[in-house]
Amino acid sequence: MQKAKGKVMSVNESLVGAQTTEGAVMNGEVAYIIIEDGKRLKAEVIDVKDGNNVYLQVFEDTSWMKVGDPVQFTGLPLAVKLGPGILGSVTDGLQNPLYELGKIEWFLERGLEVDPLDNTKKWHFTPRVDKGATVTGGSVLGSVPEKLFEHKIFVPFSLQTSHTVEHIVAEGEYTVDEPIAVIKDSSGQRIELKMAFEWPVKTSMPFKERSVPVKPMPTGIRILDALFPIAYGGTACNPGPFGAGKTVLQHSLARHSQADVVIIAACGERAGEAVEVFKDFPELIDPRTGKSLMDRTYIVGNTSSMPVAAREASVYMATTVGEYYRKQGLNVLILADSTSRWAQALRETSGRKEEIPGPEAFPMYISTLISAFYDRAGVEILGDGQMGSLSIIGTVSPAGGNFDEPVTQATLLSTGAFWGLSRALSDARKYPAIDRIDSNSKYPSLLEQEEVSYLLELLRDGKTIASNIILMGEKGITDESYIRYQKAELLDAVFLQQNSFHEVDGVTDPDRMRLMFNMVREIIDADVGLKGKEEIRSHFNFVRQAFLDWNYMRPDEEGFEKQKTKLLNLVKKRGHVAENV
Amino acid sequence: MLQKTYENIDSIGRAILSIKAKGVHNKELAEVIYPNGEKAFAQVIALDGDQVTLQLFGGGFGVSTDCKIRFLGKPVQVGFSYDMLGRVYSGNGQPIDGGPELLSDRVRVAGPSINPVKRLIPKDMIRTGVPMIDVFNTLVRSQKIPIFAKAGEPYNRLLANIATQTDADVIIIGGVGLKYDEFHYFRQRIEEAGSKNKTIMFIHTHRDSIVEGLMVPDLALAVAEQFALQGKNVFVLLSDMTQWSDYLRQVANAQDQIPANQGYPGDLYSQLASRYEKAADIEGAGSLTILGVTTMDDVTHPVPDNTGYITEGQFFMKDGYLELFGSLSRLKQQVNDRTRPDHRSIMNAMARLLSEAEERVKAQKFGSVKDDYSLRLLEYRKTFQRELMDPFRYLELEDALDLCWDILAQHFKKEEVGLSSKLIEAYWPEKGKFKILKEKTHE
């Protein structure tokens, strides 16, 4: 296709109208607008009208652009460069590496583009096919070690037909942009392959074979792992008003989830929070690998003050990279914060295009886009018994904390787990402030189904009794009900609440969670035989105190077993009267 | 550069003007020249063929079709100089304190934000002496945080207190839609505190055009950023950003933009974010802290709602008190582990008990609160409000923490407060040994 040329006709913030003067134009292709000082501003074609009137969404600030500025079309869709070197990096929503940009400029000046993958770094390539082998899209040519993993070098997935390997380089050191193989098809057409290739961000990579997400992914957060789990390859959404604890929850998930690769898409969120992650993570050691957490992390830092159009791209970029690492046979987790900001970016553009708005001025097609996005998650069977998974946890920031708004509603329909954050719980400092009653998950828990029901029933009873206490006072309910209520409160305080800033309590592995659950159950099942509200409350206060002290102890710590015994004795003998807790 | 002058204005609205012109740049600065030779500023905000839309700094009233428009070939800029300290400027950058105009460097306004990798993780506590802030929602250098309050609350007094009780190198006040007496108040407070020589004011009052009001945060932040880049710790006070958003809504409406929630433009979030995100602790330089005011009826209104998703918390003011619930400092965890070992735990324990007390307040309305523990909770709530929630009570952090322990000990038994045994041993005041609080006798 001949690349088109054109000129700017109108400018309205990030929406630019252009007219093509030659060549054909494709919806979704990337174009550059060259402004007076020679800066090249990247844009994407989002609409074509009357054959040669084109609407461009510019990924940068459009100041100083003028009517008549030349537009160069590339003929290529917005794409991500895939290859070794992504892990550990921090980029903006268009895959410009922020640390590299930082070497050039203090500010995020426009018109700068830096190669997303370091093309001077040499990787140790080991070929896995011989000359003469037959390959097609997705075949493995060889591999290089990348941080914690053996990174497979693929034949680009877009290649549909069989090719023969005509040449492949010997084991050795190569950069991502050096040719490593030449393949040819039956007609003799030859293609030179490199370690890195591109994939369009808005096109989902095809699954080789898809399976259902059923294996729970431990997150280290007890309320999730026990009551509202996510599975490898599953999806979850996490709506809540501001201040309910979404960010802390996301950071905790990023640190402690048992995924191989974690991708954080800071989509239109506070820069300060993104900085916290990418400055903190290199210092933190992943207990499972003994290496820096950053070695398994990739961050898209497209924060709130960056141009809005790049915000829309950032979510797709993160997902494409996620799909690529799934093809590597890894378990990938994407944390998208926030999908509402992404939807707002779409609303902004849609409004400028003067499209007829849907509910709350969001474009009519918002729900279709949201469900298509979450559908890119899943478990993939890659052959050779290998599996890879891509899980997506999307944060939703509903306007006014109202879950009835279109983005939350569309997200609820598209995801398998719902973690609703509650202002009331966060006000009461009951973190994580995930609604105990209204949240749900369709994925299997680390606990048995019977155990989950047992906990949920107690929580529901506790809530009912609490509202009765408000209506009738403590004296208006029976001791039996009051004990049940205290048990529900205890469960909440010692098991569901968790201090994410505490080095021990901040993360609970599945073994410890099992142990804690057994302890909680033993306490709940115990017949305390107490009389009178004062005595009952006092007993549960002592138990809570002892349990919390135990929660903050490491299992290998001296006193851990002793505290556990003390706690159980307290429950059995009501020994607190004599014992000094 | 040749500056072309155009006649034949097409339309004039409240704040918008359109004219046919060629070779004009988006966001270019222009001059409106009146028939009598007087001039006013305008800025290009949209282009469509040879149709140019301008935003009028002085508003549309009084602009006539025989005015001329001259495009100045440069973007909107603001002066930057140390001589600006102590001075007062309007929303178009002109001095309004009777002093001379300054010839100074010009710096760009509304430029891109700093690359996140050039930011440091905020790490310095700002002591304000306000217990509800220092103990419960610690302010941190480089934080961006608004005060959420209804009109009529003494938010500007709190804003001025925070700014003058702490150790900023430079204070920049951006007043948007201020009443004259509020402007006067800020000036007086700054002078009383002896901070005049480190303060610059950009003031827009109700009698000025809304476009000038729209410019205020950009001017204030552009100047602040320069000081921060030169190694200064800068405080920017913005009051009030709800007014500012309303001006934004008016201009968007005049442009026939399709509105999003409650008539605000679809880019309200991006617009607010690009201002608030100027707050930063800059690697190898100084810092920029933003304290704003967002007036509101309730937090679900689009302005506080969007603001809350951008800022690093908020101080929630109600009935003259700084509220515990509703207030939040997202950065407090960065610093409150290095103040005193009991800080975090007591902060949480106090909050948890207060929320339990709030439940009893509800119950009380049904007349069902008669048990001793509930009554003690209610007493605790009263003491908490009286001793801690006054935004104008000054206490050093350590004294405020001691006061918290005193309050707990006055109302609760050790095992009722949900604190670890270790901390209780270290800090629980024995009866009659309260450091701050004089023990009140129970009826």
Report on this structure.
The complex is a heterodimer of chains A (581) and B (443). Chain A has 581 residues and is of the alpha+beta class. Chain A has 14 helices and 26 strands. Chain A has helices at residues 98-104, 222-226, 246-256, 271-280, 308-327, 339-352, 366-374, 406-414, 423-427, 449-472, 479-496, 510-525, 533-551, 560-573; strands at residues 5-12, 15-22, 29-34, 40-49, 53-58, 70-77, 79-82, 90-91, 123-127, 134-135, 140-146, 149-154, 163-168, 172-174, 179-184, 190-194, 197-200, 210-211, 235-239, 261-267, 297-302, 331-337, 378-383, 386-396, 417-418, 440-441. In chain A, α5 (308-327) crosses α6, α11 (479-496) runs antiparallel to α12 (510-525) and α13 packs antiparallel against α14 (560-573). Chain A is globular and about 90 Å long. By secondary structure, chain B is α/β, with parallel strands linked by helices. Helix content of chain B is 33%, strand content 24%. Chain B has helices at 131-134, 155-165, 180-192, 210-229, 241-254, 268-276, 302-310, 332-335, 343-365, 372-388, 397-411, 421-427, and strands spanning 5-6, 9-12, 16-20, 28-33, 39-48, 51-56, 68-75, 77-80, 88-90, 105-108, 125-126, 139-140, 144-149, 170-178, 199-205, 233-239, 280-281, 287-295, 313-318, 321-322, 328-329. In chain B, strands 9, 13, 14, 15, 16, 17, 18, 19, 20 and 21 form a ten-stranded mixed sheet that branches. In chain B, strands 1-7-4-5-6-3-2 form a seven-stranded antiparallel sheet, with no helix packed on it. In chain B, α2 runs parallel beside α3 (180-192) and α6 (268-276) packs across α7 (302-310). The mean pLDDT of chain B is 93. Chains A and B meet through β1, α1, α4, α6 and α10 of A and β5, α6, α7, α9 and α10 of B.
